[in-house]
Amino acid sequence: MTERGRILACCAALAVACSDPPRDVCDGVVASALTAPDRKLVGAASAYPADGMVRGRDDELAHGQAIRREVAWAAAVRALAPVPFAIDPGAAAPAELPRWQTWYGADDLRRLFDRLFRNLSPDEMRARASFTDLALDEALAWNPTAVDELASWPPDRWLAYLDAIDDAAEIAGVGGIDRVQYSPGAARHLLASYAPIVGCEGAPAPPPIADAPSAGPRRVVRETMTLTACAERGFGPYFVGDGETLMARLEGTGSLRVRSGAAPTADSFDCGGDRCSASGPAAIWIAVTAEDGGAATLTIDYQEADPAWAPCLSSPFPLDAAVVKADWRRAELGITVPVFDTSATGLTAALAGVQEWQPATVADPAPEAIYTLALPTGSRYRLAGLHLMTKELDHWLWLTMWWSPQPDSDFGADRPPSVVALGGPWRNYKMCVVTAFREGDADPRGGATATSLAEALAAAHRGAGGPSWCSNPMIELGHGNAASSCIGCHQHGGVAVTSEDILADDVRFPDNGRAQVRNNFLDDYSWAVTAGDRLGRMFADQVEYWTPPPP
């Protein structure tokens, strides 16, 4: 165990502050949270900078594989971009993490929910009162300082903890190896939705098909800022569809201005105060201006014409919601990384028979070729695969990446310079993407100019109108999973059904679960509430424990 590991060893006993230490399993896949002291180093999670215009291209994305991949690579860059630590430990490496690794894990959500719920009055607890925006702001600002309230972390221990972080692998290890992490927009929405989440916990699932959509507004962004005198801060553009309205509200100093049209300078008008709205169809920009300067908080909501149904949440997830699922493999003890053939030949074989991914060989890549980190215990891990789902589309943008020793062929052949410019190992990951249940591109080769990519896309293409495909060979394991799709599986988020059930029952879940069989998305495509992190159970346990009996 390293010095940093000894410093952190007693954390396991602190239920609110830290998670259990990582446990190895036979294939080297583990999970270990970013702890309270790590959170102080990293600071508040970095918001996902969503592209507000993507949802205006939904139909274009559904019908064009090339533009779909272009948009997905751009989203990957936004999630992978380096973010500096709040506190630099002074190691011999830049103190930064890829944006997604700063996001919140179950440990953060447990700590945040405990603070939020216990700050309610007894009557509010019994009524399961919603957390106010101000309460959520306060809790998220407090979270990086939570370790300061622990008697077990005096200043000398904190300084020793900083001194024990020496190199790039240990810097990366500060981010932990949580299996699932939530952007600030996603985490905030889950916390704000605790009451309907708890109400759905253990309740019978509503029917898969619902006639009436929910009517609540969908959050776009809530951001607190400090403006200097005469400064202006811009937001957008956001796509507002026909029959939809964008509503902006400003608290604190300043005033709002809305711009709509094809460019930021078109059709500009002032709101004349702290509230304004704009109707679609249009691209909308928001500007906050302040003559004297000061603090301000901007909140933007959509009122959608046909919002997605999410009966077990307060509303659908906001625009800046994003979730990652990471696949970590031990980088020592003889544990290697499987290598999969995702060429046209390899895909044809994987999609035949039992439709199961089988590794072609194994590799032992060096840290410069694969994202690698060291945990406080000294154990080293490599990132084999990464799912990313973003709410930039109403039915989410689904992309997934996997490591390959031949990264520039097939699903890596169109990697843009922006990914290469990230440096390090990120040019060694391939990517596939879906945005709809059915493939709308009539061209099996997707217009790809790289032959290897065109042939690979054609191998997975089932014809226009057939089921869309995107499967990560590092993550989608077992019979039938090579022919699966993220969107198809996640439509059942919140329902008491397993991925094995979905893949095994072609009557209830056709096309290996890829076909759309519901429009009633209980948790807005999220499995985190009822499976995986089981956030619903965690919220319910806290509510039951802390709620006082009636007077």
Beta strand %: 15-25%
Averaging pLDDT over every residue, what do you get?
Answer: 90
C-alpha Rg (nearest Å): 23 Å
Low-confidence stretches: 7-30
Structural class of the helices, strands and pairings?
A: alpha+beta
Helix content: 25-40%
Number of domains: 2
Summarize the SSE layout with pairings:
Layout: H1 3-8, H2 36-42, H3 58-63, H4 65-80, E1 82-84, E2 96-98, H5 106-118, H6 122-127, H7 133-142, H8 155-163, H9 168-173, E3 180-182, H10 184-192, H11 194-200, E4 218-227, E5 231-240, E6 245-252, E7 255-260, E8 268-270, E9 275-279, E10 282-290, E11 294-303, E12 322-330, E13 337-339, H12 344-350, E14 361-363, E15 372-374, E16 380-390, E17 397-403, H13 417-420, E18 429-434, H14 451-460, H15 486-490, H16 499-504, H17 535-546
Antiparallel strand pairs: 1-2, 3-12, 4-11, 5-10, 6-9, 6-11, 7-8, 7-10, 12-16, 13-14, 15-16, 16-17, 17-18
Describe the fold and architecture:
- By secondary structure, this protein is an alpha+beta fold.
- The protein folds into 2 domains: 3-204 and 317-546, no CATH class; 218-303, Jelly Rolls.
- It contains 17 helices and 18 strands.
- The strands form 5 sheets. Strands 3, 12, 15, 16, 17 and 18 form a 6-stranded antiparallel beta sheet that branches.
- Strand 16 and strand 17 form a beta hairpin.
- The chain is globular.
